[in-house]
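Data card: per-record layout.
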Amino acid sequence: MGETINAGIAMMKVLEDWDVQQVYGIPGGSINSTMDALRVEKDKIAYIQVRHEEIGAFAATAHAKLTGKLGVCFGSAGPGATHLFNGLYDAQMDHVPVLALIGQVRTADMNWDSFQEMNENPMFADVSVYNRTVMTAESLPHVVDEAIRRAYKENGVAVVTIPNDLGTKEIPSEFWSSGHSYVQPVLPAPDSQMVKKAIDLISTANRPVIFAGIGVKGATDELIALAKHLKLPVVMSSISKGIIPDDFEGNMGSAYRVSTKPGNETLEQADLIMMIGADFPFGRTKDLFKPEAKFIQVDIDSAKIGKRHDVDVPLLSDAKQTMVQLVAQSKEVAHRPFYEACVANMKNWRAYLQQLADKKTEPLEVGSVFKQINRVATGNDVFAIDVGDVTMNSLRFLNMNPKQKFTTSALFATMGYGVGAAIAGKLTYPDRQVFNLTGDGAFSMVMQDVLTQVKEKLHIINVVFSNESFDFIKDEQEDEKQKFFGVDLQGADYAMIAQGMGALGITACTHEELVAAFDTAIKVEGPVIIDVKIRNNRPLPAEKLQLDPATNSAQEIADFKRRYEAEALQPFSVYLNEFEVE
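The structure for this 582-residue chain is written out next.
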């Protein structure tokens, strides 16, 4: 036998070739060979010891969402493996590349019902695009290399189960990896005849709208140019927050429940919707579109076209190239009444949000907290957003630009995402200011991993919106006319808990304390937890508006405006009439 290399170390060399920077997980007896290989290669790949494997999976997923590059996590056999599922399903549903390394008992102990032995392949079959158990030490680096290629190709989760003894064996050193030769696929250019059909359809529409998804990432200028050129209001998917600036006049925000008022109203009134790089499940299930609305759909995945609605003009093509061609092949629209009505509607909505943000009442309001977040933001920040009312409020109140990063658990919508996502954000972008915005319900699920932030000396500003309630679910119970049950939370002093873990903990109950908390938070070196005690108020339900005299009684409108402090908020019909929209 010629020169050899340890199989586990060979696997690490494969990860290095694919430019993996961090691996997240917790040691365990069935994954010790992988741990030893990480020890040997620690100067090239950082091992991040989390306190729960779920957080490791969230961090790996967030890394992929923020960078487009592979995230890597691991778990030992049995409970270590099953703890990964929440994060892996988040990666699956939001279509990002993640590699999960799963421990297994040694080969001699397999199929003997050994301690912690599980048949892990079928467990991970549903969540993965690639799922293999390594059978020989010699194949270990090859299987991992193949897994990574598949994760990138399918934008999904690849799972490799490794019997622990295989990583300890010597194998021939002539193994290879394909990371250095990986080439991004060339995205399809649009068919010029289909572009012409799209332009013709837009030209005959009175109320055309763009719905832009994560597929427009990297095409900020092109999207804005198209919106301006053809006077098309833009509704964004929630996960696409920040791709175009929030202060762009044509940005209507997001739709359905975690939404803005103009986002929903714009889609509801549209007679033509151009979906660009978007997969919007609520479009069909929540009746957000007019039945007679026409659709243009731009996507690089043929399986997405026609998935949610009938499509009049399908464009299997790259979003950026398509938008460039739509501008190049069309005449500029100087005046579109619907666009102008949408812009006026958004101005009215922004004035409403500013009114809420400027309040100095106590107990504190959500808007007041976001005013301080926007005040201390650098313009180059990373925002890790948890799930619940905080998702909706972040989409409404955060003032973002394309230099900033926004990540949340979108289609899977799992609580607890923020802590791990913030860890990945700070490790990936160490020179940026990183926020974790979370409710007390989500934070209390995963707050043990503040210890990871402390251990890694990560300056993360964790903002906990404490109102002692699962408010997002409470609002659903209200809408379904149920009696509230199971939604009240036991409160806690999260600042004191933070202090006990070695982080800086600050409680803010007054406006003065709130301002001081953020002034302090931006100056310290390690993690900060700002426990903001807020009023338990429901955010305005943009999907259930009661503002229009054509559909609501005077009493309903008065009650709605009183409850949500929305005296100055106008129904969209006011602007449709003002600008004489057909």
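Known properties of this structure: The mean pLDDT is 95. The chain is about 40% helix and 15% strand.

See the next section for split statistics.
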